[in-house]
Structures are given as structure tokens and as C-alpha cells.
Write a structure and sequence with these properties.
With about 100 residues, the protein is mostly helical. It has a domain of about 70 residues: Winged helix-like DNA-binding domain superfamily/Winged helix DNA-binding domain (Arc Repressor Mutant, subunit A, Orthogonal Bundle).
């Protein structure tokens, strides 16, 4: 799977575990496609500081998933739900995700 897509999927699950600044930087880089230099200038820090912050967030995302496995479990649940024949139950289960 593409690294960026995978990281963004993990971010969907774990973003509440990061502070406001970390979320802002992550979203500027991965969602708004700003360069490290642009983000650094906007936040009045060095490009290297932004790079380190992003690498730290990525490492934490992988660590959280390794320990909690929420994303992995959600994928398995989606597979199970797709096999369900009762449409009302299927809809209710999808709403829980």
C-alpha cells in the first residue's frame, strides 16, 4: 500500500493522540501538500525541525497501530460486514465504523 495512504489511514484513527501543533503540521504536509520549507516558514521554525516532527509523528502512528491494531481490526470488520446478508444489520454495523 502506498505509504502516504497508509499513514493517512492511521492518522484517521490516532490523530486525537497528537497535540494541536502536531496535527497542524501533519495536515499541512499530507493534506495540503505544502513543502517542508513552506511549513517551516509559516511556523517560523527550521525545515529540519519540521522534518523531525513529521518523522516523529510517522513513527508514533506506526507504534500506535502496532500496539492497538485499530486500523487492522477495522479492515477485518469491513470484510465481515460485507458478507452480511441482512441489509439493515449491515447498515447499522457500517454506521458503527
Amino acid at each position: 500500500m502506498d505509504k502516504m495512504i497508509h499513514l493517512n489511514n492511521l492518522y484517521d484513527f490516532y490523530h486525537l493522540l497528537f497535540n494541536e501543533k502536531q496535527c497542524k503540521i501533519y495536515e499541512e504536509y499530507y493534506f495540503k501538500n505544502l513543502s517542508l520549507a513552506e511549513i517551516a516558514e509559516n511556523n517560523d521554525v527550521s525545515r529540519n525541525a519540521i522534518h523531525k516532527l513529521l518523522k516523529g509523528i510517522e513513527e508514533k502512528l506506526y507504534k500506535y497501530e502496532k500496539n492497538l491494531r485499530l486500523y487492522e481490526k477495522s479492515l477485518k470488520l469491513i470484510q465481515i460486514i460485507e458478507k452480511e446478508k441482512d441489509l439493515d444489520l449491515k447498515k447499522q454495523l457500517k454506521n458503527l465504523l
